[in-house]
């Protein structure tokens, strides 16, 4: 069974083609600058070099057609015909309270995703364009939607409600949803597998630290609490996002600086975090390099960032009455030894003891980086959201 996984953004579309007999990736790629002049298609067959083509791609249906051309191309292709694609799985950011798990695409599913446009105005409309484009080009091929929020739907009310008037929750669904759920679900399952223990019996804290960052407390195999909220702005400090702050700062700043709602929103989402404090970059590689070169602002940004991760680990250990496994994943979590070292430093009271040598080793494999006498197992688990989307798509379309 061959499954095409799609992550459609407003001006980009990423794809991976899986052969589910052995879960291998046959090809992957992306279309960038959709709707702009000179769109770029980058296609990478698993066994041949990458190809890049510059073209004019005005909307998502043309982008999907271009992807299918690449997948069946006589030189760069990996399929003899598009009819070899059995199903398509889509990443969808917001599933609201309706989608507690992945779902087959039908009229009802599409209607619900549209109803959620308000909650994720930058993402859900773009995903819908991807779904409609596949419908137009691959008629009759079943599609599945996999939501970033679904894993967190198990959070209890005490975790997901904000202490504001209940009418706002009832009228406008203002509550915490959490994101990166596909990643937290994947890495926690993978960690339990590697440890040879049932996930249901472990207390895990999963730290997904990339451009966006979130921590999740996983109890009895379920998300119990997570740091992102109604939007992906809450929680940890991120590359350009502030994370937690006193909400009174918003009206105060608007008043003092004469900012509009759009401007203050943009300040908190695009001009805060590492970028704001360092005055240099939102990229953790550049921050750490500058810090080692003696840049004081970069050091402050790094220290604020790691301190906030540490506080969430402590909070979640308290929330679950303990912690068995601490996981690091995503771009920064998987690659930055110095970040992991700083986060774990001073957490011996929780039973966290990092093995500095194991932590410093470079590898793409999931592995343990704590000492044998550490009561908490600290692990790096590379995330693979696409694989989980392919698996869910496989499961749901097999049953259909
Ligand atoms: P996204 O949230 O966009 O999926 P990723 O998970 O790919 O992001 O993470 C991207 C981030 O990972 C970038 O900020 C990048 O600086 C960081 N990163 C990648 N490699 C390293 C490294 N060796 N050290 C520190 N940060 C790294």
Query: Which second-level CATH architecture of the largest domain applies?
Result: 2-Layer Sandwich
> What is the rounded Rg?
22 Å
The helicity comes to 25-40%
Q: How are the strands of the biggest sheet laid out side by side?
A: 5-4-3-2-1-6-8-7
Largest sheet: 8 strands, mixed
Distance between the termini: 14 Å
Please identify which CATH superfamily of the largest domain we are dealing with. ATPase, nucleotide binding domain
Number of domains: 2
Order of helices and strands: EEEEEHEEHHEHHHEEEHHHHHEHHHEEH
Structural class: alpha/beta
| CATH C-level of the largest domain | Alpha Beta
Count of separate DSSP helical elements: 15
What do you see in this structure?
This protein is an alpha/beta fold and 400 residues long. The protein has 2 domains: 2-147, 2-Layer Sandwich (Nucleotidyltransferase, domain 5), CATH 3.30.420.40; 196-385, Nucleotidyltransferase, domain 5. Helix content is 38%, strand content 20%. The protein contains 15 helices and 14 strands. Strands 5-4-3-2-1-6-8-7 form an 8-stranded mixed beta sheet, with helices on both faces. Strand 3 and strand 4 (39-45) form a beta hairpin. Helix 10 packs across helix 11 (296-319). The mean pLDDT is 96. Adenosine-5'-diphosphate is lined by residues 210-212, 239, 283-285, 288, 330-332, 335-336. Adenosine-5'-diphosphate binds next to helix 10 and helix 12.
């Amino acid at each position: 069974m061959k499954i095409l996984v799609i992550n459609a953004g407003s001006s980009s579309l990423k794809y991976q083609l899986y052969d589910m007999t052995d879960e291998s990736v046959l090809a992957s790629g992306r279309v960038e600058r959709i709707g702009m002049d000179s769109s770029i298609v980058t296609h990478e067959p698993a066994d041949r070099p990458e190809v890049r083509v510059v073209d004019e791609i005005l909307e998502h249906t043309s982008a999907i057609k271009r992807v299918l051309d690449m997948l069946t191309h006589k030189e760069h292709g990996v399929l003899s015909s598009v009819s070899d694609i059995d199903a398509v799985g889509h990443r969808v950011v917001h599933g609201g309270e309706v989608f507690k798990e992945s779902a087959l695409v039908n009229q009802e599913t599409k209607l619900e995703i549209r109803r959620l446009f308000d909650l994720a105005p930058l993402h859900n409309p773009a995903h819908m364009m991807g779904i409609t484009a596949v419908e137009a080009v691959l008629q009759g091929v079943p599609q599945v939607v996999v939501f970033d929020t679904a894993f967190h739907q198990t959070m209890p009310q005490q975790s997901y409600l904000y202490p504001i008037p209940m009418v706002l929750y009832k009228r406008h669904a203002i509550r915490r949803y959490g994101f990166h759920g596909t990643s937290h679900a994947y890495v926690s399952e993978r960690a339990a597998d590697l440890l040879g223990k049932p996930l249901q019996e472990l207390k895990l804290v999963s730290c997904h630290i990339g451009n966006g960052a979130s921590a999740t407390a996983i109890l009895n195999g379920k998300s119990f609490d997570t740091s992102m909220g109604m939007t992906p702005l809450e929680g940890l400090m991120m590359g350009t996002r502030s994370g937690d702050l006193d909400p009174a700062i918003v009206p105060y700043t608007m008043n003092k600086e004469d900012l509009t709602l759009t401007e203050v929103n943009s300040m908190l989402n695009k001009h805060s975090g590492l970028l704001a404090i360092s005055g240099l970059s939102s990229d953790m590689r550049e921050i750490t390099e500058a810090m080692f070169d003696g840049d004081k602002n970069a050091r402050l940004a790094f220290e604020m960032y790691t301190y906030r991760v540490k506080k969430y680990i402590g909070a979640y250990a308290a929330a679950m009455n303990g912690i068995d496994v601490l996981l690091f994943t995503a771009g920064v979590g998987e690659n930055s030894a110095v970040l992991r070292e700083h986060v774990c430093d001073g957490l011996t009271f929780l039973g966290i003891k990092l093995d500095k040598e194991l932590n410093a080793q470079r590898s793409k494999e999931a592995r343990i980086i704590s000492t044998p006498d550490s009561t908490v197992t600290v692990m790096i688990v590379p995330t693979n959201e696409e694989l989980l989307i392919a698996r869910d798509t496989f499961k749901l379309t097999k049953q259909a």
